[in-house]
Amino acid sequence: MLRRLALRFALIGIAVLFLAGGVLASACSEESASAGDITVTSFIDAGHTHRVTIKGADIESPPAADKIIDTTYSGGHRHTISLTPEDFESIKNGSKVTVTSSSDAGHTHTFAIKM
Asked: Domain range for residue 70?
C-alpha cells in the first residue's frame, strides 16, 4: 500500500515537472513561419504570453528607420515592439536581440529574437 502511494506521488511529480518544463521551454520559443519570417513567443508576464512575427523580408533587407510591430492579442490586449535597423542587422547576422514591449494592462513582455 505504501509502495503504491509512493509510486503514485512519484508519477505525479514527474508529470508536473514534464508539464512545467514544456511551459518554460515555450516561454520564449522561436519558430519559423513562412518565407523566412520568425515568430517569437514572449516570456510569461501577468500569467500569459504574446507572439510577434518578424518578416523575413525585413531581416534580409533591414528598413532604414525603426519599425513598430504589433504582438498577438492575448489576455484582452496587445502590445507593440520596436526594432531598429541595427536590431534587424543583428538578427540577420545570427545574434540574439532582446526587446521589451510597450506597456499595456499594467505590464510589459520581453522577447528574445534570434534566427
From this structure: 28-113
pTM over 0.85? The answer is no
Domain count, the chain: 1
SS3 content of the chain, % helix, strand, coil (to 5): 35, 30, 40
Q: How far apart are CA 111 and CA 73, in angstroms?
A: 15
Q: Answer with the residue of higher pLDDT: 72 or 35.
A: 72
Torsion of CA 57, 59, 64, 70, to 10 degrees: 80
Q: For residue 1, is it within any domain?
A: no
**8 A C-beta contact, residue 79 and residue 92:** no
